[in-house]
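I have a small job for you when you get a moment. Would you make up a two-line entry for one protein for me to read? No commentary is needed, just the two lines. Write everything out right here, beneath this request.
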Amino acid sequence: MSLINRRTAGAGALVGLFVALSMATTADATTYYACVAKKGGAIRIVSKIAKCRKRERRISFNSEGAPGRNGINGSNGINGAEGASGFTSTLPRGKTELGTWAANLLTKESVYYMPISFNIPLAALPEYAIIGKKAPSTAVCPGTVGNPQAASGYLCIYVGELFEGTLFEFDPNQEGFGVNRYGTVLGLKSGVTEGAFAYGTWAVTG
């Protein structure tokens, strides 16, 4: 047999071997028997009782190897804190929500209402304070109109501009002044001689 023919025969035998092994992957581990040519390495699968030729040697192998060593167990992940990601039913303590507001009244003796709604409701009613235009920060409202902040349990409204008007807060839940767990309504009342406009930011902390 020529070298090319022997290589072809060996390749064919290897293909047959791989097919047989792939068919065994869905079953339990099986022992296979084969005869390997001493020259050229051609392989042919034989039965358990078959004898190999003089120029061959007999081998056996399993379709499934010995189990490998167990890997090292990984450390447990850190549980996510409430509100760290995704939706939470109430604003966690120490977490802050921010927003903006603005109003423009073109007529005198009129009122403009601006809703301030908390995206996440508070667990309890907050206290509130209005920091006027250029007014200094306070202990409970330590921020500014450009960087609104609020202490825990407070809603702080920062005024960036207020012209010829008066600001007040209106709680639609109680039909009176104040704030509820879901927000408030900020009102702008114009003067008796002309309209008014105002704008600013707000911060609330659980």
Notes: The first strand starts at residue 31 and ends at 37. Residues 44 and 79 are 57 Å apart (CA to CA).
